[in-house]
Amino acid sequence: MGIRFILMVNKQGQTRLAQYYEYLTLEERRALEGEIVRKCLARTEQQCSFVEHRNYKIVYRRYASLFFLVGVDNDENELAILEFIHLLVETMDRHFGNVCELDIMFHLEKAHFMLEEMVMNGCIVETSKSNILTPIQLMEKA
Amino acid sequence: MLYIFMLGYDVDFGHMEAVSLISAPKYPEKQVGYIVTSCLLNENHDFLRLAINTVRNDIIGRNETFQCLALTMVGNIGGRDFAESLAPDVQKLLISSSCRPLVRKKAALCLLRLFRKNPDVVNVDGWVDRMAQLLDERDLGVLTSSMSLLVALVSNNHEAYWSCLPKCVKTLERLARNQDIPQEYTYYGIPSPWLQVKTMRALQYFPTIEDPNTRRSLFEVLQRILMGTDVVKNVNKNNASHAVLFEALALVMHLDAEKEMMSQCVALLGKFIAVREPNIRYLGLENMTRMLLVTDVQDIIKRHQAQIITSLKDPDISIRRRALDLLYGMCDITNAKDIVEELLQYLSTAEFAMREELSLKAAILAEKFAPDLSWYVDVILQLIDKAGDFVSDDIWFRVVQFVTNNEDLQPYAAAKAREYLDKPAIHETMVKVSAYLLGEFGHLLARRPGCSPKELFSIIHEKLPTVLSSTIPILLSTYAKILMHTQPPDPELQNQIWGIFNKYESCIDAEIQQRAVEYHALSRKGASLMDILAEMPKFPERQSALIKKAEDTEVDTAEQSAIKLRAQQQMSSALVVTDQRPANGTPSGIQLSLVKVPSMSINEDQNMAEQGLSHENGILSKVDPQTPSADLLGDLLGPLAIEGPPGTDVQSQQNIVSGLENVPNTVEAAAIVPVEEQTNSVQPIGSIAERFHALCLKDSGVLYEDPYIQIGIKAEWRAHQGRVVLFLGNKNTSPLVSVHAIILPPSHLKIELSLVPDTIPPRAQVQCPLEVVNLRPSRDVAVLDFSYKFGNNMVNAKLRLPAVLNKFLHPISVSGDEFFPQWRSLSGPPLKLQEVVRGVRPMPLLDMANLFNSFRLMVSPGLDPNPNNLVASTTYYSESTRPMLCLIRIETDPADRTQLRMTVASGDPTLTFELKEFIKEQLVSIPTALRSPMAATPAPPIPQPTSPAAALTDPGAMLAGLL
């Protein structure tokens, strides 16, 4: 399956964006997010970016006050996911120009569109930034 | 709204809005509609059905962006409905050359989703060539998605996709050489690391690569990756290149390449686990663990042991976990001592989350690779001492088992236990182990200072107030044993212990109460019963419950706790039984130990009798089993006593009788009962033939029963195969021995019987699964030759197994349109046979139809215009024939119901014949079991014809006929 879910969480533990590629009920999502966030936020810079949680691995990366957490299968290539997070951030950077938490909060739908273009059904679809951003520009024009 | 949802509120009020947005004509509206829908709804949501049509229109429409949106949504949440209606369209899109890569990459993943969810709906048969075409694609986006699709397809069935393999390698080569890669797909100078990773992942699904050219070029690429990657300043570039590198390592491991390359890998990993960068260290450890599984590089890895142990002290729990796994994996005889000691040391500093796993692993390693057993005992006791809370019961059960089975170990273990008891505060589990060990083996220490029974007792008793109720029973057993080992008896100690038993006799916990009462009564009876409390016999060697548990740790918790529970139950029943059982019945007792029920009942009998008789002590002492009268008893009950636990069995029966009737010469009374039982033991209960016929119609029931055993049967039939389980249930309180079961299969059946145990423990049920494969049509019946010995009586029964022709039938209903062409196409013998059957047991047509249905011949009412006729159809499965449609037509004569004309048709001559004969048999001699419900129907009673009646009343003749 690859990627199970992608979360963006701020330093206070509030979820800013959540995308799941497997169906979980609301309660399950809430519980899962709580557990993961607690686990990841407690870690320091010196520790590695992978945490095992239940039956999957969380690959996470911190950008200023925002945490990007990606839940993947156990046999997924962790570093590749780690870099994928960075690619996502770079893409957002290109679109918003130095992205910050507020950008994502107020343009949630755009963040979702980007994610949609990059990941589909738990697999990476597109890694070229310009390709990812075309539909969004298209929408802005419309 | 999405925001609200994300915060965790239910927003079903907006679902409908979202779905209706999809059909909006404007792009932004549609976009929002699609995204919200795919985020909020799951695949089975009702609203989605409403959207299918719109989605389909978008997919087949001309507008590319709309196509993309629709595909994405289907890809994210597509369910069965979508798969059914959209799969062909999506497939078309994927291979059409007219649409842009943008659309095609989405189509690839959409198809992947549909394929994963419903492999049966999406037809992938012709996909091999198309996949190969797709892999020639220049556009990396499409390539990335198709690679994901390929991974799924290949993992499902790698055989078919051989042709894709060289293409993968070529792609990889192209990427690794950085040829012809558009600028926007390079990431920090590395050509699309994700695609590289994906490609190598796909390659890992192929077992090996045979083509030497492909192999060579692949190795070149891998070599290049392995060598060309070095640490650079830029974090992102570093990560990306290492992502590729690790995947390459995994691929090398998978390919099991030449030694040289392998050791290169290990060297690299060794370097990684020493670097500062935590991510890489983590992955280095993880991959090293994986490597252990794949190849014989342990020796090289062992060189890094020190480094790995340092990682165990890393501040990061993820890394520590990996290090622990790796240590666990690399442990063997040579380094076990070091590693386990290291683990023990670490245990005291480890955090709670890891302790349980740690202690479990340490225990397993200690057991598996222990150089000597005293070391093992040391380790476990230390373990319990340091992390008692995290030591599961299994671990201490296991150590007890070991000590009991090894005599030389016993004094050592007891002494150790004594030492630990001296500590001021010890863990509950430690109390349990020590109390148990001292109870069993404390007397071996009696000569040492501070180890007299009295001292042992007082030191153990000190702990009593602090323990939980689950530990008290163990302590009580220990007291009883200490008391028993005190020779000559010490009155002071005795009084003390009796006092305790007295106190607990009114305890609310049933287990404690029972033990207290029992031990009290037993110890009062004096020395003659002391051997009941003798040392436990050795445990049967069984696979360590711990290893089993460790294997299951990945399994979800419910199952795990079930396993634990089972292990505990086994253990506790073993404890109870062996405690009570006289030591002279050793071998048979081991079988006993698995069954809790009988032992309890014996105990209770004994108790009841004892309590009832304790004030009539005078009488009881005369009726002691060891008195001369027991000789007579012994003669009469000799056969019984051989298998049963001798003393207990005889005695308990005796006591029950004496308790009830209160007759002085209980011996005779007791003796008579079993003798009577023995004389009529051979008679089965119920008719074997009747049971067989009933089972021909049902899939589960009783095959055979007599006073000692009941054989139940449960069957599952699937096409030409069947799985039958025989349940052999011993109805007695003593075991059945010399149990033999042989299957005499007819030539058309292949039957495999799993091992039948030689002995069936009392009141226990043994399951023997049977695998049945039907090779070709035949009416012959398999026979189970079953025999066992109860006492001196050899009982033998030949039982027909209900694996009969009709079990391999599968009812199928056909309509008139299907039936008649088939019927006509099968013309005349040998495919279609007709016979006039006379002497049929008369029955109303409705009953006959029911009978047919119960034989899995599906009656199709109304197919035949004549209401007196019956038409039925079924499919027959056997290994030699394909599923065969069989058609049957019965024409009855309303004037004379004892005769009818039967026509049977099928595609196979033997089948037709056998089926016809089978039905004939069933119609002529309907078993009595079926007759009773029929008598209840309002049908007018018709005089029975003589010939079938004779066949019916004589089961012997019937048996002969069928056998």
UniProtKB/TrEMBL annotation, chain A:
UniProt-annotated location(s): Endomembrane system
Pfam (any one): Clat_adaptor_s
Transmembrane segments: none
One cellular component term from this protein's GO annotations in UniProt: endomembrane system
InterPro entries xrefs: AP_complex_ssu, AP_mu_sigma_su, Longin-like_dom_sf
Biological process, per Gene Ontology: intracellular protein transport
Assigned keywords, A-Z: Membrane, Protein transport, Transport
Principal subcellular localization: membrane
Keyword Transport assigned: yes
Residue intervals of the AP complex mu/sigma subunit domain: 3-141
Cell cycle keyword on record: no
Similarity section: Belongs to the adaptor complexes small subunit family.
Protein name: AP complex subunit sigma
Species whose genome carries this gene: Carya illinoinensis (Pecan)
Top-level taxonomy: Eukaryota, Viridiplantae, Streptophyta, Embryophyta, Tracheophyta
TrEMBL record, chain B:
Membrane-related topology note: Peripheral membrane protein
Region (Disordered): 935-954
Top-rank taxon: Eukaryota
Domain Clathrin adaptor alpha/beta/gamma-adaptin appendage Ig-like subdomain: 693-802
One GO CC annotation: clathrin adaptor complex
GO BP term, example: intracellular protein transport
Main location: membrane
Functional description taken from the UniProt entry: Subunit of the adaptor protein complex 2 (AP-2). Adaptor protein complexes function in protein transport via transport vesicles in different membrane traffic pathways. Adaptor protein complexes are vesicle coat components and appear to be involved in cargo selection and vesicle formation. AP-2 is involved in clathrin-dependent endocytosis in which cargo proteins are incorporated into vesicles surrounded by clathrin (clathrin-coated vesicles, CCVs) which are destined for fusion with the early endosome.
Family according to the record: Belongs to the adaptor complexes large subunit family.
Subunit-structure text: Adaptor protein complex 2 (AP-2) is a heterotetramer composed of two large adaptins (alpha-type and beta-type subunits), a medium adaptin (mu-type subunit) and a small adaptin (sigma-type subunit).
Name of the protein described by the UniProt record: AP-2 complex subunit alpha
Native species: Carya illinoinensis (Pecan)
Source lineage: Eukaryota, Viridiplantae, Streptophyta, Embryophyta, Tracheophyta
